Amino acid sequence: MGNRKVKFGVVVYPGTNCDRDTYHVIKEVAEEEAQYLWYKDTDLKGSQVVILPGGFSYGDYLRSGAIARFSPIMKAIREFAENGGLVLGICNGFQILLEAGLLPGAMLRNRGLRFICRFVDLTVENDETPFTLLYKRGEKLRIPIAHIDGNYFATPEVMAELEKRKGIIFRYVNNPNGSLHDTAGIINSRGNVLGLMPHPERASEALVGSTDGLRMFLSAAKFVRES
Amino acid sequence: MRAKIEVFLKSGVLDPQGETIKRALHTLGYESIKDVRQGKVFYIEIEDDNPEKTIEEIARKVLANPVIEDFKWEIEK
Amino acid sequence: MRAKIEVFLKSGVLDPQGETIKRALHTLGYESIKDVRQGKVFYIEIEDDNPEKTIEEIARKVLANPVIEDFKWEIEK
Amino acid sequence: MIDKKLLEEHNLSEEEYTKIKDILGREPNLVELGLFSVMWSEHCSYKSSRIHLAKLPTKGKYLIQGPGENAGVVKADGKAVVFKVESHNHPSFVEPYQGAATGVGGILRDVFTMGARPVALLDSLHFGPLSKPANRAIMEGVVSGIAGYGNPVGVPTVGGEVDFEEEFSHNPLVNVMCVGLTERDRIFYARAGEPGLSLIYAGAPTGRDGIHGATMASAEFGAETEHKKVNVQVGDPFREKLLLEATLEVMEKDLIVGIQDMGAAGLTSSSSEMASKSGVGVELYLDNVPLREEGMTPYEILLSESQERMLMVAKKGKEGEIKSIFDKWGIDSRVVGKTTDDKRFRAIWKGKIVADIPVDSLAGDSPRYNRPYVIPEKDERLEDKWLENRDWGQVLKKILNSEHMASRHWVYEQYDHMVQINTVLLPGLGPAVLRIKGKTSGIALTIDANPAWGRSDPKKGAILTVAEAFRNLATVGAEPLGITNCLNFGNPEKPEIMGQFVETVEGMKEALEFFGVPVTGGNVSFYNETEGKAIPPTVTIGAVGLIPDLSVLPRPEKVKEGDWIYLLGWTKRDIGSSVYLKVIHNERGGKVPDINLENEKSLQGEIIRLVREGKVSFAFDLSPGGLLPNLSEALFSIGKGATLRVETDLEEVFYLFGESPSRAIIISPYRISAKVPVLKIGQIRGDELIVYLNGKKILQEPLNTIKKGWATYFNRLFDR
Ligand SMILES: Nc1ncnc2c1ncn2[C@@H]1O[C@H](COP(=O)(O)OP(=O)(O)O)[C@@H](O)[C@H]1O
Ligand SMILES: [Mg+2]
């Protein structure tokens, strides 16, 4: 297997707007292989990691991510995830994973009711996932957020279960949106589907302010290469 | 036929919008308002043999998120 | 006392959300849905001597945007 | 049947009506009257401004496309930068959220119509004072409207400005600029090619949105008045995003001859302008136009301003391919007409010709006026009481904690300013800087307006605004490639207002000719008046510059303890129209600073040289607020304190809060010398701001204390 490039699939829904950014980072910065997956596709064209990027799928009408979950490609993504494939949902991608039931919980409107775009500090809570291999537990990351519905909510039982199995992977240092338990990102119990509100692709090059997000893509690639 | 579906947050789920409106109303002097919860309402034109079934189905499957929301509907003949 | 206020777009005002939801429903096979318009609904707890007046007032002044929206309300005793 | 009342409702003069009859050789029907009314309106025809705008310089070494297209184009490091600013003032007053949102939508379309992917938005916003709740509501609506549209479309709002003057209480200004990037051989124009080509309509169905107010009372539409009242345009950013992607894909596959978005006067202006420019005619089949509402008349279909619509002229035989691309993106498209060889604008509805007009009379040959004007009197006051010494520390905090200077983060954090990951300098200070992916270069963007200058002296105000915009660019090492502008004025039929306009254009011309930078386009917004009270004349300048090498870009993170603080330029007795007067003396007038353009040019040249030599950790110009407030803001971003020692023979206020132009601060670890005055005035040190003036300590305070009011001003007002 050696140094073969890992193939990332970047899903494009109508209204997705971080697809090109994510593609750019995977291809030009992480130097892995990248391909777009159209929401009407029914297979993942050999993708080894699937990313649901940020944006406003279907304008975020109805609820963020609510309409995208019915896209034809979701069936393939679900099967891929059930077979242990790595799926990363960023921002709107996270919201879609929640709406689709691939991750537990739901997003409410931000506590302040406003869209917030800024760099925030996160802590890495769990460095034993395929997406955080290259981070250290407790490490602080500077990664931007950009959302209006990022106030993570789940029932007390779900929150307890998440905490117990270390399913909260990233937490905000200063909670910007009201998320329960300062949750910024969670993983499923099988440990292969991660969703987070911050944008690692916006923090992958020093020129635009931070490189703290890059290791998320590199971790996933390393995990795939070594498994 | 016209149907109306209301989708609202389950009790126990925090409603940031309702909270904010309540505070704004208090600032404006409407102290008698004790609580505000905000929901969505969908007005639907439907031509269907079994509108009850269809409406119930789209409310459940599409319009409401069962993790946080409940719904109710009625059909205006 | 509980009041319910519905706020909806005036007819003729474009409703992109409703449009998009309608299209989504068609894609899902719900062809019998001819039109969807989305509005807001507010559930209000009020303790007031003259709840009708207060509710009408906050609907008009605070909750609805008169340029593009209308509203209606009812009080459930 | 066409009487005085009807003409009045259509805003047409007797004279214009006579001209219409001459052109047609008969009386127009009502549809035709409507078409002339809208196409000859100030908004579409620039009838009062054209002869003056023609004076502006439109040639430059970087210019690809000057005024006259949907947007201007300049070269930048082998690429083409497409940009334009537009106002949406009145709609934003009527319905702040939707007014601002649709303003963003319109300017985005102007840019992607030219074949460029929009990469940035900037907004210049002017409201009434926030002490009035109504003004707060307008600002809140406008800002969330810009966010609500720009964010979903995925174009970052990377810069802008917000300021406040009483006159804007009833007439806010919402000027939005969009910048796009494309290849130099991939630019599209509003052209119709040759006769016999299909016109393709793509986008949202047509509703009764924004139909000219004049039509409302018109007898023929009596039965429909219910609907007529609702003519607020609602934006659909989701559809815009799809329209953008589909349009760019159609362009990439080279399937069209020309294209224009349907903005003001919708289908009529887009089709007639393309045809007129190419010397062909156009025939429209109104029954093919997708409609959103029932019972729409030809009048309404032709003049609707529904958003998110495009009109393009297909290359022969490419109709099907075009349609399949729009289908893929879920956008309706239809053939709604064709080009003809008779140079007429003809609309056909239910088998009948409902309008038949020489196309040039609608688009090219609309009337133009040389309206009478009087040159306004200048406010030249400089009052002694403005010059008295005060507790400068208190003054500084008061100014920083005012709506004029407080941190704008409450605004720009609602905007996605990072999507597309090109934003090299985050909003907060100075111009926006974007990288160009795949190159070492970048572009710098700024938008500037200062109504206080315009009110006291429109001509000098315009010169100063241009100079400020270029100085902003210079601080990041960028030289200007071109500008776009938006001229916001009252009623041009009043000679005083027309005088302000003439003076403003004169000033802009003088400055641009001096710098050798062309205007690439812009927008004129007249009739910004409520109850006879006009806004101050306000010219908004949007400038684009090129930074050859981003590796030497000054940025706050580069500043180190011990770096020197240099003041470059000339400080004079300038305090009129300043933030200091507004906040401390509640005085909104006074003499506008003089500017020596030669000095200004040397200053900018020297800053650019120093930046490009890699000598500068961080640089900023002294814009409104003056030295102390501007330096404090810079220190807040840097996160370090400073000690200043300044010596002056002038009254103290001029040095600390005066607003002399042609000045900038450079922070550098090196010894700096230049061909303009350079003073070493201090050093980056500790976490306090300490200021000595003529040897006397006038201020010593922790930066954090100074920062508090500045940082939270808008949150305290808006966050409930
Ligand atoms: N309406 C706005 N939209 C986006 N950014 C804004 C807006 N207003 C201000 N900003 C940003 O805030 C910063 C400070 O604005 P301003 O006081 O005008 O500074 P400057 O004079 O240095 O340009 C700038 O970076 C500017 O781009
Ligand atoms: Mg400025």
Give structural notes.
- The complex is a heterotetramer, with one copy of chain A (227 residues), two copies of chain B (77 residues) and one copy of chain D (720 residues).
- Chain A is of the alpha/beta class and 227 residues long.
- Chain A has one domain (7-226): Class I glutamine amidotransferase (GATase) domain (Rossmann fold), CATH 3.40.50.
- Chain A has helices at residues 19-29, 73-82, 92-99, 156-164, 214-226, and strands at 7-12, 33-38, 49-52, 86-90, 106-108, 116-124, 140-147, 151-153, 168-172, 183-187, 193-196.
- A nine-stranded mixed sheet of chain A has the order 2-1-3-4-11-10-9-6-7, with helices on both faces. Chain A has a two-stranded antiparallel ribbon with strand order 5-8.
- In chain A, α2 links the parallel β3 (49-52) and β4 (86-90).
- Chain A is globular.
- With 77 residues, chain B is α+β, with helices and mostly antiparallel strands.
- In chain B, 32% of the residues lie in helices and 39% in strands.
- Chain D is α+β, with helices and mostly antiparallel strands and 720 residues long.
- In chain D, α8 runs parallel beside α10.
- Chains in contact: A-B, A-C, A-D, B-C, C-D.
- Chains A and D meet through α1 and β6 of A and α8 and α10 of D.
- The structure holds adenosine-5'-diphosphate and magnesium ion.
- Magnesium ion (MG) binds next to loops of chain D.
